[in-house]
Amino acid sequence: MADGDRLAGLPAIEEFPSVIAERVRFSDTDRQGHVNNLQFGAFLEAGRAHVLFGEGDLSTPGCFFVIARTSIEFVGELTWPGEVHVANRIDRIGTSSIRFAQALFQNARCAATSESVMVQVNVDSREAAPLSDRARASLSALARPGS
């Protein structure tokens, strides 16, 4: 696949209803002068945390969220100094799980896309626990139409 073909399929930031800005620190960079790939995961985590806890904790009392699966496709660089825009959308709400679609943008260019599944777990049983109606309503506001 040619680079142009790969870039043509990238999402636009407008496809995501929740976007936060994170500051790139010098310590996020590696010897090549760009943000280390591991830091991409930290930026994505900040986006998920904002969705789940930014407007109030969406977990049911006695429960917490765990990440069950995540994937990142690196499609560009992030550099210092600057900001990264973490774009978040909910692609599926299950009984106890949430599938996030995310992307990282810098200077209006997509640098990575990601899909993650979070599961709500009961503190005592360590088993999946149903999402509350309040969580479903909040997450639905960030959902892709038809999800």
Automatic annotation (TrEMBL):
SUPFAM superfamilies with a match to the protein in the record: Thioesterase/thiol ester dehydrase-isomerase
Pfam family of the protein (one): 4HBT_2
EC number annotated for this UniProt entry: 3.1.2.-
Keyword Hydrolase: yes
MF GO annotations: hydrolase activity
Gene3D superfamilies: Hotdog Thioesterase (3.10.129.10)
Superkingdom classification of source: Bacteria
Keywords in alphabetical order: Hydrolase
Protein family per UniProt: Belongs to the 4-hydroxybenzoyl-CoA thioesterase family.
Name under which the protein is recorded: Thioesterase family protein
Organism: Sphingomonas echinoides
